[in-house]
């Protein structure tokens, strides 16, 4: 019974959604939108669970003075401060998203720069990963190295200035072998996704229930 | 201090104003009034200037304005009803059609007068009315707006909105899905009957036990990152099915398992999966819900959090399986820097090269969906994999057939009149 009920719910929900994809007539055509609304409501409540988990795990780190507990203090203070500032913005300006509100100040001058900083790290990681990936250890890695050099040269002005070959060749690499491989992976992934969805709907795949 | 206006100055000023007004009235009083309508003029400044130049060259009347022609209305196909699609062309007269600033769509039913139901841009030639009532015959008039006036089209023939019981445009999808299901059912049945099913070796999945074993020997935790998408994303579902298998192995060895989540629903599901895995191996007391933690929904905030966990806790095995975007390489490179054995997998083709470059093993595309079947080794699950392979073979055959037929048709008759070209076009259209 403990497994039968979730499996039945999964089967019926999956079946309704598949049917609604092929039958646009009411009430089937509206099912997907309706279920998305339900999903949004459930997601809203689980956000509370997420915040509860976050607070409890960091509170535990602080009480046990685990390694790096100071970071947990910063996180909890930041969490509470952002909520308080949001409420102040609502009272003072009618909305926390008002451009003059302190909430937007925190967003613009703390969150956005931090996000940009993390994203900027990608440049250095690409350099280090490329260095390892492009080492010509065998003929396959050499092929990768040569292709990468051609594509990089073909996409910058100096490549075209050196020879018309580079822009032409990079275009060919990107639109023929690269795209063919990409589409092959996408077709396989799409079939795999459909297969797994069917396994879940039919109750064959139960590992998510364990 | 402003000097008082003399009589002579006043007379000159009055004369200038009178001439200006006279010029505007002579040019076209009606057009002037319409041009003063503000929004329309703003919307088509360039077009308005062009029209004004034409107007300055001589008088023109309403018959010179562009008018919508060939107005037709039809039911929107494959919908739940309540929608009608209006289409039109433009008959341009002396004022060129580029003077149009937009269209107003008017609708009337039996015994009603035309009422506006919506607007369309100057570049549009169709409008979908989503407020139609099913079963009522509606007629439409398209009002063409210019800075100098509006013209109404002839009313179109009436049409009725209806809901359809089957989306005919999705017939090909239905047939393919049914064939796919038949293939799955056949192989599952065969597997249940004890048939021998060969499944190729997937190195990334073979390495799962090694990775967990190594972490156990080193006394370090295992880190499982299920991507940054929510549970409705199929890549995340695949990650959660793999998490179930990893959690059982980890629980059996008594190795700590950390699962940082970017979505609270994923966290809740992952907690249940890990908890159940510990219960199944008889160690429910070792399950710690705080290790399956919610970090943040923010993409780079989550990345920073997981990076921090990697650098502080130094996990020996890192699983990066699910849906990843720009954070993929940041996570994989951090994992590489701490010397962890890394198994990654995603269906995002743009992120796969990063995982291949930075991780020890990469599950490419469909392999993450096959993982659960592969790891469980249950015949029924393996049967579904064989069905999937058969479907893939079918698609390859269709692609090859279309390629051969299309190429041969183009070679035989380059003007596209060959039977082979028509077959190719039929196949292409059917799959589109």
Describe this structure in words.
The complex is a heterodimer of chains A (210) and B (432). The mean pLDDT of chain A is 89. The radius of gyration of chain A is 26 Å and the shape is extended. The longest helix of chain A is centred in the first third of the chain and has 36 residues, at 28-63. Among the domains of chain A are: 1-66; 136-204, no CATH class. Helices cover 81% and strands 0% of the residues of chain A. Chain A has helices at 4-22, 28-63, 69-93, 102-133, 139-154, 157-162, 165-175, 177-201. Chain B is built from 13 helices and 14 strands. Chain B has 432 residues and is an alpha/beta fold. Chain B is elongated, with a radius of gyration of 34 Å. Classes of the chains: A mainly alpha (210), B alpha/beta (432). Chains A and B meet through helix 2, helix 4 and helix 8 of A and helix 4, helix 6, helix 7, helix 8 and helix 9 of B.
């Amino acid at each position: 019974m403990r497994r039968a009920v979730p499996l039945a719910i999964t089967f019926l929900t999956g079946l309704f959604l598949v049917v609604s994809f092929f039958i646009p007539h009411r009430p089937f055509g509206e099912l997907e939108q309706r279920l998305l609304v339900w999903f949004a409501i459930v997601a809203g409540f689980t956000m509370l669970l997420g915040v509860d988990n976050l607070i409890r795990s960091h509170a535990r780190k602080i009480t046990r003075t685990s390694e790096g507990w100071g970071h947990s203090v910063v996180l909890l203070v930041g969490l509470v401060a952002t909520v308080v500032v949001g409420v102040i913005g609502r009272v003072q300006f009618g909305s926390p998203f008002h451009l003059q509100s302190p909430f937007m100040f925190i967003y613009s001058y703390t969150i956005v720069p931090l996000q940009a900083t993390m994203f900027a790290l990608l440049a250095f990681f690409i350099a280090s990963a490329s260095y390892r990936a492009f080492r010509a250890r065998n003929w396959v890695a050499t092929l990768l190295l040569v292709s990468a050099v051609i594509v990089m040269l073909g996409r910058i002005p100096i490549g075209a200035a050196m020879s018309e070959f580079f822009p032409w060749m990079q275009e060919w690499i990107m639109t023929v072998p690269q795209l063919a491989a990409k589409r092959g992976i996408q077709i396989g992934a799409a079939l795999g996704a459909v297969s797994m969805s069917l396994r879940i709907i039919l109750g064959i795949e139960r590992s998510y229930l364990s | 201090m402003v000097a008082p206006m003399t009589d002579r100055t006043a007379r000159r000023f009055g004369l200038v104003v009178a001439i200006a007004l006279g010029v505007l009235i002579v040019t076209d009083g009606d057009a002037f009034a319409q041009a003063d309508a503000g929004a329309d003029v703003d919307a088509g400044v360039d077009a308005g200037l062009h029209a004004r130049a034409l107007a300055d060259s001589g008088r023109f009347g309403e018959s010179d304005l562009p008018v919508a022609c060939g107005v037709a209305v039809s039911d929107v196909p494959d919908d739940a009803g309540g929608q009608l699609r209006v289409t039109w062309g433009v008959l341009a007269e002396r004022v060129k059609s580029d003077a149009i600033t937009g269209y107003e769509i008017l609708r009337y039913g039996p015994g009603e007068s035309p009422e506006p139901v919506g607007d369309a841009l100057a570049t549009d030639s169709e409008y979908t009315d989503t407020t139609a009532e099913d079963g009522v015959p509606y007629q439409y008039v398209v009002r063409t707006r210019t800075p100098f006036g509006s013209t109404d089209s002839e009313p179109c023939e009436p049409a009725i909105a209806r809901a359809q019981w089957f989306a005919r445009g999705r017939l090909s999808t239905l047939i393919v899905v049914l064939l796919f299901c038949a293939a799955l059912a056949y192989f599952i049945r065969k597997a249940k009957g004890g048939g021998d099913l060969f499944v190729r070796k997937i190195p990334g999945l073979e390495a799962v036990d090694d990775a967990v074993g190594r972490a156990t020997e080193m006394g370090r935790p295992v880190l499982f990152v299920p991507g940054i998408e929510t549970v409705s994303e199929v890549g995340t579902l695949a990650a959660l099915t793999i998490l179930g298998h990893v959690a059982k192995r980890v629980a059996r060895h008594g190795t700590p398992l950390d699962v940082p989540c970017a979505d609270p629903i994923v966290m809740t599901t992952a907690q249940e999966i890990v908890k159940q895995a510990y219960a199944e191996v008889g160690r429910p007391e070792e399950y710690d819900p705080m290790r399956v933690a919610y970090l943040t929904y923010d993409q780079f905030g989550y990345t920073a959090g997981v990076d921090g966990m990697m650098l502080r806790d130094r996990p020996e095995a890192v699983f990066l399986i699910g849906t990843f975007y720009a954070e993929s390489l940041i996570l994989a490179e951090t994992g590489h820097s701490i010397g962890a054995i890394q198994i990654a997998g995603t269906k995002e083709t743009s992120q796969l090269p990063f995982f291949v470059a930075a991780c020890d093993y990469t599950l490419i595309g469909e392999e993450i969906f096959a993982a659960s079947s592969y790891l469980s080794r249950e015949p029924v699950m393996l049967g579904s994999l064989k069905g999937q392979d058969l479907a893939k073979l079918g698609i390859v055959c269709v692609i090859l057939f279309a390629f051969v037929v299309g190429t041969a048709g183009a070679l035989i008759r380059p003007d596209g009149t060959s039977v082979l070209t028509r077959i190719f076009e039929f196949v292409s259209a059917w799959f589109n």
